[in-house]
C-alpha cells in the first residue's frame, strides 16, 4: 500500500505575554524567523498583522508530522519572544482587538473589496493537505468526504470567545469564516472537469480575485497535488492537530477507495451540510452532532466513534489505528480547545489569564 503524504498549515495568534491582547507584530516576527532559518522559512504573513502562519513538509509518517508541528510552534514562540510577543494557537482572539490588515497588495485588495468581512477575519484555521494521484481521484475524494467534515470541525473547535465575550459557540471562527462568498460546503461535482468548470465560473464572476479565494471546506489545492481540508479551527493542543491530520488522511484514503470501486457519493444536500456545520460550530464535542450517515442528531461521542469506524481499515493499514484510538479517547475525556478556554476562564476569572494558559498549551 502506498501511504499518502500529509502536510499541515496552522495560523497562530500573536499576543502580548502580559496582557493577552493581540499584537500586530507579524513583520518583526517573520524577520526573526527568517534569520533563524537554515534554508527557506516555514513561516508566512497572514491577512492580519496579529497572525503568523507556518506549513510543514509533506510527511508519510504521522509521528514525524507531529514532531514537526511541535518544532514550528516552538520556532514561532522563539521568534515572537524576540519581537516582544508570544504565540497562541487560538482560532479567535478572546480579548477585544482592532485587527490590523497587512500592507501587502493582495491584503489591501481584500480589505477594499470586502470591507468589514475582511477587517474582522482575525481567525485561525488548520488546513490539512493529503496527496492524491490525480484531479479525478481528488474530486472523487471531495465528493465522498463531504458529510464527515462537520465532525472534524467539532473536534477542532477552539474559538468560544469574540471581542471579550462568550459567543455561545464552540467554534465562532466557523461563523465568521462563513461570511466569505465562496466559503462552506459544496455540491457533488462528479468529475474533475465539472470541478474546474465551477471554479472557473466562480472566479469569472469577478467577485473573487483568483483561485486562491476558493474557500470551500475542502478543495483541490491550486498549488500542490493534494486535497486540502480547510474546515478546522487551529487546535490548541499540538497533539490534536496531529490527530486531525491522521483522520483526514484516513478519510481521503477511504474515499479514494470508494471512488475507485465505483461506489456513489452520498447525495446529501448542501443545505443539510450547512446545518451539520452549524451544529458542530455551536456545540463542538459537548452535546449532539449530526451523524453523517443519517443527518440526525446523536451524542458527539457516538458520531466521533462512527468516524473512527469509517476510517478504521485505512488507519490499520497505515499503522495509525492504535495511536488514533488513544488520542481520540484523550480528546473526548478532556474536551476541545473551546472547553479548555472556558474552563480556564471559570478557574481564573480572567480572559487574560486564560490566554496565558493557552500560550503555554500551544507548545505542548
UniProtKB/TrEMBL annotation:
Keyword Nucleotide-binding: yes
InterPro entries, per the entry: GCL_type2/YbdK_subfam (IPR050141), GCS2 (IPR006336), Gln_synth/guanido_kin_cat_dom (IPR014746), YbdK (IPR011793)
EC number of this enzyme: 6.3.2.2
Keywords, alphabetical: ATP-binding, Ligase, Nucleotide-binding
Signal peptide extent: none
Catalytic activity: L-cysteine + L-glutamate + ATP = gamma-L-glutamyl-L-cysteine + ADP + phosphate + H(+)
SUPFAM superfamilies documented for this protein: Glutamine synthetase/guanido kinase
A molecular function (GO) term: ligase activity
Function: ATP-dependent carboxylate-amine ligase which exhibits weak glutamate--cysteine ligase activity.
NCBIfam families: gshA_cyan_rel (TIGR02050), PRK13517.1-1 (NF010041)
PANTHER family: GLUTAMATE--CYSTEINE LIGASE 2-RELATED
Family statement drawn from the similarity comment of this UniProt entry: Belongs to the glutamate--cysteine ligase type 2 family. YbdK subfamily.
UniProt protein name: Putative glutamate--cysteine ligase 2
Organism: Streptomyces clavifer
